[in-house]
Amino acid sequence: MLPGIGVFGTGNVVKVIVPFLREKGFKIEAIWGRTLNAAEEVAKELEIPFHTNRIDDVLLRKDVDLIFIICSPNLHAQIAVKALGIGKHVLCDKPAGLCQGEALKMVRASQYYPSLISIVNHSLRFLPAFGQMRRAIVDGYLGQESEITVCDVRVQMGSLLHDAYDWLCDDTMGGGVLTLVGSHVIDLVSHLTSQRAVRVHGVIRTFTKTTDHVNGIRHISSPDFCTFQMEMSGGALVTATLNNHLPGTFSQEVLICGQAGHLMVRGGDLYGRKSNSAKEDVIYLDVEDLQRGGAINSTAASTIPRPYMKGLFKMIGALREAFLPVEDKRGWVKEPVALAATFEDGLYVQAVIDALKKSNSNREWVKVNVITEEPDPDPLLSAAVRRSAISM
Amino acid sequence: MLPGIGVFGTGNVVKVIVPFLREKGFKIEAIWGRTLNAAEEVAKELEIPFHTNRIDDVLLRKDVDLIFIICSPNLHAQIAVKALGIGKHVLCDKPAGLCQGEALKMVRASQYYPSLISIVNHSLRFLPAFGQMRRAIVDGYLGQESEITVCDVRVQMGSLLHDAYDWLCDDTMGGGVLTLVGSHVIDLVSHLTSQRAVRVHGVIRTFTKTTDHVNGIRHISSPDFCTFQMEMSGGALVTATLNNHLPGTFSQEVLICGQAGHLMVRGGDLYGRKSNSAKEDVIYLDVEDLQRGGAINSTAASTIPRPYMKGLFKMIGALREAFLPVEDKRGWVKEPVALAATFEDGLYVQAVIDALKKSNSNREWVKVNVITEEPDPDPLLSAAVRRSAISM
């Protein structure tokens, strides 16, 4: 049987996901919003039977077995850890949290409850074009995997901000193009190349600090542009440029070059060319229509770039399969979502984001350091305690 | 009357330029090649009456008044300086030289003979799409010029190398994507934005060190990939990715974003979108045919990317106008080529290239320092001389 779902968040993506979850047979039991008003409004619009602004009121419901965390990143870790602790499956939006410390807590919780499903919403992994790209790489289209030379990613789009001031404007709450788009890119590149970033260099900028709607005492601190380079464990060099200064546009290109050829995903289509070939191969064209059944609010849908939405829908399809296994009687299996990003992947992505932020501040290359111990919240105090212990 | 031309170099671009110069009414009097054989072969193919492998034999000819330097960069400075010194006009291929010291010598020579035409072949300035882009920026399409936020350049193409080993394989002779393509990008961005690079960061790589034809004791040292960032004097941030790993392809995109909109040149076409507009403007479509008269060897033409070739042809058209002024009786005027890159521009580009190389070596941001004094060729010796002068 499909689990009942509790949703955290009231943004546009929720309005896209809920109808699609229902179409796939999931039941939405409860929704949480930052304010009671916001929760009530969306609950009404989407006809969700229960709404609240208290986290526990969703988590503790008996009819809720799967948690969708699609709110601001500063709340991801606390909700995810608590949900796993009381035996609920979790799908958490990217990035995992605000910093590695939070992401590590989530990893620990997922390791403690390994039978529960815990995945990060890096939906591009489920976009068919990237599935095909991954397969082509594994099959040697670019040569040996160790012969991947360059990976070049470019995302050009409009502003990520809403009209009103909210967490998207705030760097410290996880807003901005690096956390919201860059996290996808960092995960995707690792997924495709089977390599992880060793050293990174980044430039992160907030060019637009005020808008017609946000121009009072609060300014925008979340970045609207970033460009970064990553030296990968297998020798590949990644360069990515993410740009929020093209209103009304969405264009995403992922190019991977190897000694034997190159592969390029544009939008949802995959092209390739072997070095010794005289012409480009059209490997996969994405002609499948997203809007079947008309279930999706098209206004909301237009606010989320198509490849991301489509990947998300495919991931929800996989999630359905995970809960409707044909032979297994336990109620769920993990295989259908084996492709999904784990909380460990989320921790790695967070480590790269942390390194990029440090690189930007210090204007230098920074080694990526995935933590395995929670950072000491107060190193000075700890040192003092140790000293007093010694002197006693 | 149009001046007689002496050409230095025997590469493919020569085979494209010579027929076009003739079509414009110029007479090619002499050609120089690195070897007598190479010179003879091209002289025969292009029906040039005189060929040599001695530089002076071209420069000193009375029927030669305009020098086209299209050979390896390590020879640019010495030929250009000598040519100006004996009263000949010079068009010099990019980059100006191998280092700032060489470029500075060229600047000095051009300042000493200001009435002579001395230009660097940064031909993209003459491509109509960039002319239109520059005009749109000046007319405020992006807002104030000081409101330019991001400039993003991407060039994707195949290898720059020939089958046989030559200077293109050699970093120290000026080969590679940074000097040959990057120099254009550095010049173009300054030309378009009226801003110069203040600080730069670059990653420069040679992924392909051997080919089927170059695999003996000599390896390829010239870079086939680079990505760089430039902080500009007016606050803009430039990011550029130049990639030689897409055989059989040529794609060039130059995007400039401002607070009021963005402009994008793709190939030879210009698109734009104002921030408050619901649709993209097609500002300029390049439909003009290059191959008129059939004068151009199409095999050779295919070896040079179309925007570069077209810009070069427009520049040669401007050069013709410079030598055929209607009212001025001196024989030439500089106005028609006022758009061209000067040797001072060449020195600036060289300063940025030097800074990018240093950035790549030291893995750090480097301040761009345009020299005004020739660097001391042997600082240790000079210090010893100063010490002995003091002790005497």
Explain briefly what this protein structure is:
2 copies of one chain form a homodimer. Chain A is of the alpha/beta class.
Would you write up a description of this structure?
The structure is a homodimer of 392-residue chains. By secondary structure, chain A is of the alpha/beta class. Chain A has helices at residues 12-23, 36-46, 55-59, 76-85, 100-112, 128-138, 177-193, 298-301, 306-323, 343-362, 379-391, and strands at residues 4-8, 27-32, 50-52, 66-69, 89-93, 118-121, 148-157, 197-205, 225-232, 237-243, 250-258, 261-266, 269-274, 281-284, 341-342, 366-367. Chain A has a nine-stranded mixed β-sheet with strand order 14-13-12-11-7-10-9-8-16. Chain A has a seven-stranded mixed β-sheet with strand order 3-2-1-4-5-6-15, sandwiched between helices. In chain A, a hairpin with a 2-residue loop joins strand 11 and strand 12. Chain A starts with a strand and ends with a helix. Chain A binds chain B through residues 149-150, 152, 154, 156, 201, 203, 205, 207-208, 225, 227, 229, 237, 239, 241, 243, 245-249, 255, 257, 259, 262, 273, 275, 277-279, 363-365, and chain B through 149-150, 152, 154, 156, 201, 203, 205, 207-208, 225, 227, 229, 237, 239, 241, 243, 245-249, 255, 257, 259, 262, 273, 275, 277-279, 363-365.
